[in-house]
Design a protein that fits this description.
Layout (H helix, E strand, L loop, with lengths): L6 E5 L3 H13 L3 E5 L2 H9 L6 E5 L7 H11 L5 E5 L4 H9 L4 E4 L4 H12 L3
Parallel strand pairs: 1-2, 1-3, 3-4, 4-5
Helix pairs in contact: 2-3
Length: 125
């Protein structure tokens, strides 16, 4: 079971998905902050908020997930980022992992599968 002190930042422009992730991850014992787009998430990171993991949609207005990934990793090179998207394939997954994403999850996903990806990212073997 995840520790109650693990802090996650969720960047998702779809308000229903953002709230679903916040509620679900909070019930799992994570402290969850959310941002409506990448620029808001980056502002939280630049303000010094400390997170164990960023979960970001790839396609968002103002700043997409790829730009957010690059910016987050420039602030903290070992920052753990999971990207989620409705669009993409193996080439996108490989490219984004090459930029430092821990994992790439396609929507629609099953919550238990996402929880497994999160747990593996936070507790690598």
């Amino acid at each position: 079971m995840p520790g109650t002190k693990r802090r996650l930042l969720v960047a998702e422009d779809n308000s229903e998905m953002r709230e679903l992730l916040r509620r679900t991850l909070s019930r799992e014992g994570y402290h969850v902050d959310t941002a409506a787009h990448g620029a808001d998430a980056l502002e939280l990171l630049r303000a010094g908020a400390c997170y164990d993991l960023l979960i970001s949609d790839v396609r968002m207005p103002e700043m997409d997930g790829e730009e957010l990934l690059k910016a987050a990793r420039s602030l903290k090179p070992d920052f753990k980022v999971i990207l989620v998207t409705s669009f993409g394939g193996p080439d996108d997954s490989q490219r984004l992992r090459g930029l430092g994403a821990i994992d790439f999850v396609l929507k629609p996903f099953k919550i238990p599968d996402l929880l497994d990806v999160i747990e593996k990212a936070l507790n690598p073997a």
